[in-house]
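Aim 2 progress update. The chain analyzed this quarter is reproduced below.
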Amino acid sequence: MINIPITKILFIDIETVGGCPDLESCERFSPKIAEQFHKYFDWFLKRFPEDEVLSPRTELKDFMFKKRAALVPEFAKIICVSMAFVLENGEIKKQTFSGDNEKDLLLQVRNLLDRCQKLDFYLCGHNLKNFDIPMLSKRMIINGILPSKILPDYNTKPWEVKAIDTKEVWQYGAYTSIGSLDLVCSTMDIQTPKDGEITGDKVHSAYWEEQKLNEISEYCEKDVDVLIQFIKKLKELE
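Predicted structure tokens:
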């Protein structure tokens, strides 16, 4: 089902937060970004209508900034990137980059991606094409970094894209179907990384309010472990 050798796959996951702790601090330290958030607030409302139910109207903008800014590259910040590959003997090699300085982090990530691109690796991640790749590419550009060639851009032809998106694999062409990583894990009897203290929706507060970068990194690495297990299971199909 997955014809690419597992030793030629770079498994990747990223963790993001809003670029500031809250909307008030964004207005103070990044006023131009805050102005754009206000302009695009209606888009956020249409994209995430459930948030109107979860928050008092007077606090809705700040609530949505804390909860949703991490999902949009223009308003986000990457704080952790975990990558792994499998050796010929089955050993798993992992490397995680995390920190408060996003530019330094992304430079290290690009260096590793460039090395893997020269070795003809494929990327593998869950919702990789719709989230991780555009997030990494845009945040690199915003930080003045030329994205790695392994990250497909507008000029990359479909047959040249070296990316395995496990969400696409699981949806099997039905793009309106559900396919969260947690659901895949439960269905395939893989221990989910989503049942710990830190989950995706708690990363923003864990980083800005609790300074739990180490715990976030561990959570990110667990997602990569799950990706490897999922691909291995697909390769074992008879």
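The mean pLDDT is 94. The longest helix spans residues 213-235. These observations will guide the mutagenesis experiments scheduled for the next reporting period.
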